[in-house]
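Worked problem 6 (solution included).
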Amino acid sequence: MDQSLNRRDFIKKSGAAALGFAILPSFISRHAPSDRLRIAHIGLGGMGNQHMQWFAALPDVEIVALCDVDELHLNGTLESLKKLHPDTQAKTYGDFRQVLDRKDIDAVTIATPDHWHAQIASLAFQAGKDVYGEKPLSYDVKEAGVMLKNLTKHNRIFQLGTQIHATDNYHRVVEIIQSGAIGKVHTVRLWKNGFSPGMGHPKPQTPPKTLNWDMWLGPAPLVDYYPERVHLNYRYFLDYSGGVFADFWCHIADVAWWAVQPRGLKSVTARGEKTDGVADAPKWLDADFEFENLKLYWTTLPPNVPGAAERGIGAYFEGDKGTLICDYETRSITINGETVSDLPEVAQKLPRSPGHQQNFVDAVKARTSPESNLAYVKDMTMPMHLAVISWRLGRKLNWNVEKEKFVDDKEADALLSRKYRKAWDLL
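Solution. The predicted structure is:
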């Protein structure tokens, strides 16, 4: 599978869908400058440009700053912004700390590699900024806790970039499951087709002058540069991310956490395969999770259940009265042998989203909690981190929910966090 094409297709598809939700009708007049949210975008690769385009389409937002450690990304995004808003006065920066120092910026979006998410967000909270951050939430478990602590202390707003959360389909799936139509859900199966590439065996090179390689690495270990390691490919290296599994977990796990709210994680058992190249994130990873009164499974290939084979990503809920299968845009409910796409008798109770980005803007202005708030996504993201640890150690791990530690397992506990490079430990 050409994973880069697969991801580009995903970004294009989900980006278009989310943008459709984000753009308001053309007859709405532009807000007065004093009413507009002043936003800076930090990290300007593929998703960073999506962020810029999404927020640039909102009439109550003004983009005032762009930031990236790669001058090519920075200049390219500025040109794109100028095409959308020829009168833009946005300033450009190579160091996000200069952005956070600006008192006139209300909020930032973060689309850096995963290993920078938590520090930048926490520093933004400390600087009085609200944050729209890309997924996954953090590089490790400890970072997520630090983020929540800083958000709470500084009374900030955070929205995770789970754009699919805003769709009507996910809202409807949650309504149907929480109505009890398929009974008590005892098993959930999640999957995502796709294998992490090995990236070959490249030789070290001198970083291009347009890239601040030391700052790109930031808190991660100091290593030699080669192009196969940076930008989109970073997700295939454990120093920065966790492969296709970590990349897509939250997009489909989101609907499961929202619908059935798994509680009391007891254990995780992961298995998978290494790549045949320098990339050390799992080529593929499957995981079994045991919660109180719920079993949850993640697989790389679709499970052997009706309707899964034709869905490259999906969730399958098994209740004692029926089943429901869904992906981002579709759903099927089977009860007593009859399969339908909806249950009209189930009332619509959940307020629909104005768009994921607009929901964030509205929450910032009203000082209310957005849909993909930090406390919720922290709970939803943690099992993903634990599964990667189980895969790295090659064994089942038991979890203590109250202590947020493994049960009598210091080796596993050591992987819940890592020590930052001294120069880039900024908190």
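Discussion: Residues 1-31 have pLDDT under 50 and may be disordered.
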